[in-house]
Structure formats: C-alpha cells, structure tokens
Amino acid sequence: MATKRVEALDRALSILERLNSNDRPEMSVTDLSNSLGIAKGTIYRFLATFQDHGYVEQDPVTKNYRLGLKLLELGRVVESTSDLRDRAMPLLRDLSTETGENVNLSVLDKGEIVYLARVESRQFLTMQLRVGSRLPAHVSSMGKAMLAYLPDDVREEALGLMSFDAYTPQTIKDKDEFRRELKAIARRGYALNDEELTPGLRTVAAPVFGYDGQVIGAVNVSGPSSRMTLSKIQEIVIPALLRSASVISHSMGWKESIAE
C-alpha cells in the first residue's frame, strides 16, 4: 500500500529546502512563489508560521526571508546524538563482551527513552527493540538513570508527562515513590530495573554526561534474571558499566575523573 503524503507539508518543507541554498540564502515571497510554483498567499502563510516558531527570519530592511536559528538548534541535537552514538559504540561492544549480555544506549525525550544503539550478545534475549524504539522512562533503567540526574525543574516537567502505567506487579506506579527511587539512584550512581518492564528481565543503567556536566544519555546492560543474578550484577556488571559510562562521558568532554 502506497504511503499517503501530506501535500501541505510537502509544500512547506520545499520552502525550507529552497531557502537552504548557498547561492540565494535570502529570498522574497515573490521569488519563492516563482521558484516553487506556489501561490504567494500560501507562501506567506507558511513563512509566517515558520517565523513564529523560529525556523525562518525576515530581514527588517529587505523584507526577504532566511533560515532561522531554530534549525541550527535542531541540527546541533542531531549532531550531538550522532556523535554520542559514534563515540560510544566501541565501548558498548566491549561492555557486551565483558558482561556477556545485551548493551544499549539511549537518550531521554520528554517522558520516554529513545534507543540510539544496541549491541546484542550471543546469548540473545528476545525483545522487540531496535534503534529508534521508545519506552516509557519509568519502566526503563536508562530512563531512571537519566531522570535522576536532571535539574529539578526539568525532571518535574518530564514526570508531568508520564502516565506511570503498570507493566508488571513490580512497576513503580506512584509518582512520590518514583521520586524516592530517583534520589536513591543519584546517591549510588546507577539504576536497577528488576522485572518492572517485563517478567524475567533485569537491566542496570548508568548515566552519561556531556562537557557541561549535564546528563545526555544512559547505557544499560540487560539480560534474563536467570543469568543477570544479583550477585553477577554487583560483582561484574556494575563495575564494568560504571567504568564504560564514565569513559563515554569523558569522550564527550566531561571533566570528572574516570572510574577505575
């Protein structure tokens, strides 16, 4: 079945793409209309909307339009996540080899985590997850690890977006209890998910920090509870995980000392 296209969105994006030109970085409504074959009234409405959101700017003298700083901000987000993934991948592979388990890297998007990278162990654990998959943060060790290190106001904003649905009897459903869990995570430096997402699955996660000391992602080690015993987690997984997360943070410009 053919994918249905949104014609209005196609036209809107064509305006941004036309402005993304080295030979003519600024254009008038008339120029855009003639170039794209779109009525001037339509062009103006799209530009007004883009301007409200910061995606285009209008020169106060020439009245021509150019791309706005909002696009630069979005570009930096894409660049930073790509950079994080590229720098982390060798360490994720080493961590998977050392622990014998699956290893994942994610970032936080409001009340959800988004998977950036996955390294599957030879002892594959069947879960329908891939790069780009999303999970509610409250049932993810990576989500908890990131939330625990956010500034208070940012964390509360994220908590306000979360529904705290129960996935298993172990899922934390109460927001105040979840806040207490986050405080404990911040004290010990890692987050544990013990069958809170799905029965038989344990994961442990540690935060990744950027150059400014702000949390930018998280790494976890995941496996079935039959292999991810509490003794293995304490003796093997946590030391390796904390070391790997610290090295990744260091590669992203974090200035704190790297765990031994």
The name CATH uses for the topology of the largest domain is Beta-Lactamase
Content-based structural category = alpha+beta
Radius of gyration: 23 Å
Indicate how many domains the architecture comprises. 2
Main pleated-sheet profile? 6 strands, antiparallel
Report the sheet-strand fraction: 15-25%
Helix content: 40-55%
Number of helices: 8
CATH superfamily of the largest domain: GAF domain
First-residue to last-residue Cα separation: 54 Å
Shape: elongated
Low-confidence stretches at least 5 residues in length (pLDDT < 50)? none
Biggest sheet strand order reads 5-4-3-8-7-6
Mean residue pLDDT = 88
Number of strands: 8
Main CATH class of the largest domain = Alpha Beta
CATH second-level architecture of the largest domain: 2-Layer Sandwich
Order of helix and strand elements from N to C terminus: HHHEEHEEEHHHEEEH
Summarize the structure.
The chain is an alpha+beta fold. It has eight helices and eight strands, in the order αααββαβββαααβββα.
Question: What do these coordinates show?
Answer:
- Helices cover 45% and strands 18% of the residues.
- The protein contains eight helices and eight strands; from the N terminus they run H-H-H-E-E-H-E-E-E-H-H-H-E-E-E-H.
- The protein starts with 6 loop residues before the first helix and ends in a 9-residue tail after the last helix.
- It has helices spanning 7-19, 29-36, 40-52, 69-99, 141-148, 152-160, 175-188, 230-251; strands at residues 56-58, 65-67, 102-109, 112-119, 134-136, 191-194, 201-209, 215-224.
- 31% of the residues are buried.
- The chain has 260 residues and is α+β, with helices and mostly antiparallel strands.
- The protein folds into two domains: 7-67, Winged helix-like DNA-binding domain superfamily/Winged helix DNA-binding domain (Arc Repressor Mutant, subunit A, Orthogonal Bundle), CATH 1.10.10; 77-251, GAF domain (Beta-Lactamase, 2-Layer Sandwich).
- The radius of gyration is 23 Å and the shape is elongated.
- The protein has a six-stranded antiparallel β-sheet with strand order 5-4-3-8-7-6, with helices on both faces. The chain has a two-stranded antiparallel sheet with strand order 1-2.
